[in-house]
Design a protein that fits this description.
Helix content: 25-40%
Order of helices and strands: EHEEHEH
Number of strands: 4
Low-confidence stretches: none
Shape: globular
Structural class: alpha+beta
Distance between the termini: 35 Å
Mean pLDDT: 93
Length: about 90
């Protein structure tokens, strides 16, 4: 099991389009992936779960991955939230 704290740099945060991109990326990995913010921990492959976190640009999110491709999953999600800028 690995975890990493990520700072959201996406222009719109993890809402609608950003959340959809995050869930789509998480879904490409076999590992179980959880996301934690404040006192909430959700399945990172659930669009409703990710949206429920209400993350804005600059917020920190802890991502926990457990499985054979956990390292790759964390790297991909980190790259996504730190560089992807959805058109609003």
């Amino acid at each position: 099991m690995l975890y990493k704290d990520l700072t959201i740099q996406m222009k719109g945060g993890l809402k609608s389009r950003g959340a959809a991109m995050f869930v789509q990326m998480a879904g490409q990995f076999e590992s179980q992936i959880l996301a934690e913010h404040g006192n909430k921990k959700i399945n990172a492959k659930s669009i409703m779960g990710v949206i429920s976190l209400g993350l804005n640009k600059g917020d920190t999110l802890r991502v926990i991955a457990n499985g054979k491709d956990e390292k790759e999953a964390l790297q991909a999600l980190e790259k996504l939230v730190s560089t992807y800028m959805p058109v609003m």
